[in-house]
Amino acid sequence: MDAITIVGGGIAGLALAATIDPDRFHVSVHEQRNTLPTVETSLAMWPEAQQALDSVGILPVIRAAGSGFDAMALRDASGKALIRAEVSGVIGVSRTDLLRHLDAAVPESVTRVSGAVTSLPAAGLLVGADGVHSVVRRAAWGPRARERLSPYLALRGIISEPVPADTAGEYWGRGELFGIAPASRQRTYWYASYRSDLGPAGIDVAAALALTRHRFSGKAAGIGRILAAAAPEGTLAQRIWTVPALGRYARERTVLVGDAAHGMTPNLGRGACEALIDAVTLAQLLNSRPLPEALTAYNRRRVLRSQALRLASSAMTRLVLTESAQPLRDRILSLAGRLSRAA
Ligand SMILES: Cc1cc2nc3c(=O)[nH]c(=O)nc-3n(C[C@H](O)[C@H](O)[C@H](O)COP(=O)(O)OP(=O)(O)OC[C@H]3O[C@@H](n4cnc5c(N)ncnc54)[C@H](O)[C@@H]3O)c2cc1C
User: Fold this and answer.
1) In whole angstroms, what is the distance from residue 298 CA to residue 125 CA?
2) Is residue 343 part of a domain?
């Protein structure tokens, strides 16, 4: 039986381990984290990612626990809705729930190894599912594929209150973003992003939260309410890293999935979705074709699409967090909103 070593038991690694045929491969998953993330956050799951969850066999439980994004609005910093949108088909999913259900879907035949991988195994197929700071990518793709630090800080968390009336949506200010969305169990998911030189490692969450409260003070009332309720222990603060363009995700006996392959800015809400699609696509190809053919087909199916999303996400980040073009952007959005209402 062929061996597959998966480095990283996050969203991509677990989805892959859950869908590879255990009768054809001996799979091991190495994960450095001992527990599920302690701070709960939410992930937008687009329809294609829901299909991937269906292939893993966990779509019904994820849907049952998820929340809808029905009435969202794109707003200016004061909270005025520029465009209102019915977002159909996208669900909000707790990252912890997703990891728990993916973990439960992994067959018992898969070997679990705890601890950080530092030296890479030589035999069998090696899968880098180890996120944006991937050791597998660094070893096989070299220093030019090193992750890059963006100038942006992201904070996010869930508060135990339902979304305040008419506040859901994204608030685009001058060089700053705030998001408010429903989370499961009648709670509210919030996120904020802006340029910052905090970190990149060891960010003091309480200080970052205080800075964020100061930055958004006097802006929309809904933002103030949510930031007042947010506590440091329920907040995640991190700098955003991305992976440069890669022309291939598989070479010889090494293959990358998820953020290890295409870590992107979070503004399209696609990273975890693409990680799931990578994993399920790779598993289906490995289960049904000889290895070299499966890896060639994986490159063909996944690289262009995920690289296009990576670029689109960066473009979106520049648009959302622009400073100099903010007045023009808001005038165009306002006009687009008026036109769509008139239509
Ligand atoms: C602010 C923000 C908001 C986001 N919102 C969304 C969203 O709404 N929708 C969406 O689809 N995506 C979103 N994303 C992106 C999403 O979080 C990532 O794309 C997703 O987590 C990638 O999954 P992954 O399994 O590839 O990597 P990761 O989640 O990073 O998992 C990698 C795993 O590998 C382990 N690991 C790393 N190195 C080693 C090692 N050497 N040895 C052993 N284990 C190792 C880690 O502990 C981790 O468990 C967001 C990201 C951010 C930052």
Assistant:
1) 14
2) no
Ligand 1 centroid – CA 265 distance (Å): 12
Are 301 and 282 in contact, with CB atoms under 8 Å apart? no
- The confidence band for 101, taking pLDDT boundaries of 50, 70 and 90, is very high
pLDDT tens figures, 169-226: 999 999 999 999 999 878 999 999 999 999 999 999 999 999 999 999 999 999 999 9
Do the domain assignments include residue 342?
Answer: no
- What distance in Å separates the CA atoms of residue 316 and residue 45, rounded to the nearest whole number? 18
Expressed in angstroms and rounded, the spacing between residue 327 Cα and the centre of ligand 1 is 34
Over the chain, what is the mean pLDDT? Answer: 94
Flag whether 339 is in a domain.
Answer: no
Residues spanned by the domain of 192:
2-329
The DSSP output letter for 180 is E
What are 216-259's pLDDT values in tens digits? 999 999 999 999 999 999 999 999 999 999 999 999 999 999 99
Query: Whole-model pTM above 0.90?
Result: yes
Q: Ligand 1 atom 4: the closest Cα is on which residue? A: 266
Name the domain count of the chain. Answer: 1
Ligand 1 close to Cβ of residue 179 (< 6 A) = no
Which one, of 342, 339, 333, lies nearest residue 171 by Cα? 333
For residue 51, is it within any domain? Answer: yes
Pocket test for ligand 1, best of 259, 262, 264, 321 (most atoms within 8 A of CB): 259
CATH number at residue 193: 3.50.50.60
Query: Is ligand 1 within 6 A of the CB of residue 92?
Result: no
Distance from Cα 8 to the centre of ligand 1, integer Å: 9
Contacts of 122 (CB under 8 A, 6+ apart): none
